[in-house]
Design goal:
heterodimer; A: 6-stranded mixed beta sheet; 4-stranded antiparallel beta sheet; 12 strands; B: 0% helix
Chain lengths: 114, 113
Amino acid sequence: AQSVAQPEDQVNVAEGNPLTVKCTYSVSGNPYLFWYVQYPNRGLQFLLKYITGDNLVKGSYGFEAEFNKSQTSFHLKKPSALVSDSALYFCAVRDDYRGFKTIFGAGTRLFVKA
Amino acid sequence: DAGVIQSPRHEVTEMGQEVTLRCKPISGHNSLFWYRQTMMRGLELLIYFNNNVPIDDSGMPEDRFSAKMPNASFSTLKIQPSEPRDSAVYFCASSRDGGDEQFFGPGTRLTVL
């Protein structure tokens, strides 16, 4: 069965420092991997996705993620955090053997301190 | 494009009443998803449609919940009768195809007293 894990409930970073939000996954087939961000009282917004190709994927707002097949990970990164990056981040996975169903992780709350 | 539109944005009702949540997906998107978000359970997929056909409703909690998509531009999620434990934020999302990234609506915050 497909699954996704975000091992950290919360990540705290100082503004200007690099940030990493972790995600690991499990699928039967080839993974389609996504990151979304949710600001308070808003719906989720798409940040980036990996389907195939380069392992380093670049997305919106300066975020990037690295696909690591051997470690079944898809960590979200940003070289220099902004206070405005503070939000709830969701990793999601779709198994290409299982149709359209996308499983979302529990979410990681990112706090960026000025 | 206006994005995914959901109505109402807030709904307060009493236990036992029927609740209907509405969603208009982005034009041209052929997949539609209904999610429920709570602090305790996080984001749960309830049901999704492809080309107006329900594909997977295994996430629907019980028979009190039903969803329809009569055409490509409209879907409803109905709870009858509603219970306090149904209180949550319900999101609708659409995508160009089922495997593509999803665009979420602003959500409906449901409170059942």
